[in-house]
Structure formats: structure tokens, C-alpha cells
Amino acid sequence: MDLVILGGRLVAPADAAEPVDVVIEGGRIAAVVPAGEAPAARRTLDASDAWVMPGFVDIQVHFRTPGATDSEDMASGAAGAAMGGVTACVIMPNTNPPIDTPDMVNEVLALADGVPCDIRTSAAITVGRAAERLADLAALYDEGVRVFTDDGDCVADDALMEAALAATVRLPGAVISQHAEDPAMVAGGVINAGAVAERLGLRGRPAEAEVSVVHRDIELARRTGGRYHVLHLSVAAAMDLVARAKRDGVAVTAEVTPQHLVLTEDDVERLGTTGKMNPPLRLADDVTALRQGIVDGSLDAVATDHAPHHPSLKERPLVDAPPGMIGVETMASVVWSELVASGQMTPARFVEVVSTAPARIAGIIDHGQPIAAGSPANVSVFDPAESWTVRAADLQSLSLNSPWTGRTLTGRVRHTVLAGRPVVANNDLCA
User: Fold this and answer.
1) Is residue 31 scored above 90 in pLDDT?
2) Closest Cα partner for 181 from 145, 152, 220?
3) Helix, coil or strand: residue 6
4) Are 275 and 263 in contact (CB under 8 A)?
5) Nearest Cα to 403, choosing from 391, 394, 413?
6) What DSSP string describes 303-314?
7) DSSP conformational letter for 202
8) Are 373 and 44 in contact (CB under 8 A)?
9) Are strands 379-389 and 408-418 parallel, antiparallel or unpaired?
10) What phi and psi values does residue 118 have, to the nearest 5 degrees?
């Protein structure tokens, strides 16, 4: 055999308490057998006292290629993903130039060849992300794009958004993903419209800017039958709209970032520009509601909105610094530490929100599959007990804007296997 992962535990089936060996051959899982019964292999990985899970999937990352590779590039972004157990991710199209044509799709994917993560790309909804006319969604779809978004900007024009959602009806598996903040309502806004913004004398970005767009888009999805996904949802009221629409049978899903599950507007004063992002960190009540929502299924997935910025950009005053924080390498550990280790979320739900559901939303069929014979061998081995302290300088990103610097987390990826090949072993990138 090519590889055997020795002595780990499976999250599913739920009663799989005994350790197993996972046998991998030819890029797929050949067998799952009781521990100690695997055949000889060219290489082994020790999974004792760890969970063997489907590789994690992050469906919202910015690897700044092309246009800003001093902040991140494909190699550094993919290395961070692999270290975080992420075997597939979807890059956003707000690059320079934007990813809005089949040629750009192919150019960007060629730059990702050979990196230790399966890179997929989204494409812009509108030409140049200018919100004036639709991109050729059908041509982009034919190149393999399944996620369409003007992320970084909201498609505010009703007619454009309706046409985009209607297009997904003719493109099986396609989804329109929205950065849901009304641009008129957040113009000039820096952080959440609330007490901290008032104290700092800054213009705020109100929660209603998100709620109003989510409400409009759900109604357009309802009317067209199109498929709609809310990027980085941050407000409890918007989540309630999503949950209600799901009950009505509307094709809507929503993701939440680790930072919106943990941090609030109060953390901006402590974090400075690292705490600035769009949509902004909200209120403690929102955090409480979103945590409950990701546990009970009102929210579907966790995605990081990994947004690296060169230190020189984040050293500007808060009003001028670009929004965003890095997170692809720390995603699983933050979610496990905050929700699973605390007893709020089961390991099975953890796998659903960081692997199975995001893969399903983005149409990535060879990731997020169960650890079972015949599945593609995209695997994360996760040690639930390892305690580690985040240091931004030790992460793989070219940027340092991690909100978790100095925080001690419980749970860490030990090994990552991509298409049957170890890309991380014993917390180190493989050569």
C-alpha cells in the first residue's frame, strides 16, 4: 500500500469508538480496518489519540494572486491551508485584475499547480466587479467555476442580482455568493456602528446594512428559484432570515467566520487594525446567537475570509487600513477550542461545518467525503488534546494580521493528506 494512517478514531459512524487503520492506495481510501490489521505500506502516519477526518474545506480565502503577492501568494496561502488541515479552498475573485473571464480562471489556476492544497476559484458576478453588467456566467461555469461572487463589494442592483440568481437555475450546482452589506448604508464606515465606533469617533457600518441585503436576496432567490449563499454572515437578525427561508424551501445557505463566532466590536480596541474587517465584528449578543446557529444548523458552514495584508498596510490608522484578518491555518483549532472542547458542538457537527457542508455548497465533490473505502484520500488527522499558542510570525502566511496571536488553543492538525499524499506530517510541511 502507498500509505497507512495508524490507530486513529473515526467521527462516523457515531459508535466507532475503537481505533482503526486507514489504508490508502492510488489516491483513494482502499480500506478501513481495525487498528493493527493494515497491510504493509511504503509510509505510515501515527494517528493514535487523534481523529481521522475528511480534509477541511475553506470556501472563502484571499490568496492575493494576481495583484498583491507581497501580502500572500498561492504557495504561502496553500501552505497555511495545508498546515490547518484544509485540503481544498475557494479563492475569491477580487484580485487585480479581477477573475471574471475564462482566461483569468485558467491563468490563476495554473499558478496554483503543485501547491499543497486543492485550489478552486470563484469568479465575479459582474464584469470587473463593477456592478454594471453580468459576467459570462455560462462560459465561466464551463471552465469549472461553481461559485460566483463580487466579494468585497455587494451586488446592490436588484435587476442584476435577480438575473444572476436566475442563471443558476440553468447551471446545475452553481451558487451566487453575496457580500451582504448595502454599499450606501456602509459608505465611509470603519467598524460596527455602536458604542466603540462612537467612543473612537468613527463612522460605523450598521447591522441593518447586512439584514436588508439578505432579506432582498432571499426574496429574489424565492422568486427565481436560484441558489443563494451568504458570505461571512455576522448579524443574528440576518441568520434568522436565512433560517426562516430554509424552512420555506428557499435554496439558501450561509457561512460564518471563526472571528464572528468569538470576537466582538470591543476587541477592535485591543487588536487595532487587525480587528478591522468587513462585515465588522459585531455585538456579544450576535456572537452568542451565531454560535448557537452553527451548532443547530441555522448556519451551514465555517469559512475564514482569510484576508492577508502586508504589515505596512495594517500599520496605517484604523480609518485607512484595509479590512481583513488571516485565518485559514487556525480555523479548525479555533472552532474546536471554542465549541467542541467546550462541549457545545459534537465532533460530527464539527466535520459537517468545516468539511462536508462547505464542500457541498461549493460543488467540490472529491472533498468532504466520509473516511470510507472508495472515498478520495483527502484527510486531516486532528489531535483534540494538543495545546498550542498562536504566533503570527510562525504561521505560513506572508502577512501577520492574525487576531489569534497570543491565544492558546486546544486541538491541532497533526497530519494532512491530499489525494493520497502527505503534505503535512507531524505538524511540519512535507518537502
Assistant:
1) yes
2) 152
3) strand
4) yes
5) 391
6) ---B----HHHH
7) -
8) no
9) antiparallel
10) -80, 105
The span from the CA of 383 to the CA of 71, in Å, is 30
Reported as a single tens digit per residue, the pLDDT across 324-362 is 999 999 999 999 999 999 999 999 999 999 999 999 999
Active site residue 305: yes
Report the Cα 138 to chain-centroid distance in Å. Answer: 25
- The C-alpha angle with vertex 152 and arms to 149 and 157, in degrees rounded to 5, equals 65
Contact 228, 165 (CB under 8 A): yes
Nearest-angstrom CA–CA distance, 376 and 292: 32
Annotated catalytic residue within 305, 383, 394, 428: 305
Render pLDDT for 197-212 as a digit per residue (tens, 0 to 9). 999 999 999 999 999 9
Query: Cell match 454594471: residue?
Result: 132
Domains and CATH numbers, the chain: 3-51+375-429 (2.30.40.10), 55-362 (3.20.20.140)
Q: In percent, how much of the chain has pLDDT > 70?
A: 99
Give CA–CA dist 275/28, Å, rounded. 41
Strand partners, 408: 389
Q: Is the pLDDT of residue 166 over 90?
A: yes
The DSSP-derived string for 211-276 is: HHHHHHHHHHHHHH---EEETT---HHHHHHHHHHHHTT--EEEEE-HHHHH--THHHHHHGGGG-
pTM above 0.85, yes or no: yes
CA torsion 284→286→289→290, rounded to 10°? -110
